[in-house]
Task: structure prediction
Amino acid sequence: MSEMKDALSHSLYHEFPEHHEQINRLKQTDSAFAEKANEYHKLDHQVRGLEDSDVPVTDDVYDDLKQRRARLKDELYQMLTANQSP
Result:
């Protein structure tokens, strides 16, 4: 069961394992990054909750949540790569 959960995980650490330390640092030092990371975590939790449950939801609502999560992930990646140490 754990393997299945890992396959569905879209946590920032899972998505960007090479940026693990930088994610931690930016969460502590960059309020904009921390806010977006928190919002991303909440959206990911919502999406995974819908995937794991039998709660009825329209495809539009589900797709909207997934699209918002994808947009945030792109924004966070841009912030990670813009703040890379040489």
In short: The CA atoms of residues 23 and 80 lie 7 Å apart. The chain is about 80% helix and 0% strand. The two ends are 39 Å apart (CA to CA). Helices lie at 2-8, 12-15, 20-29, 31-52, 59-82.
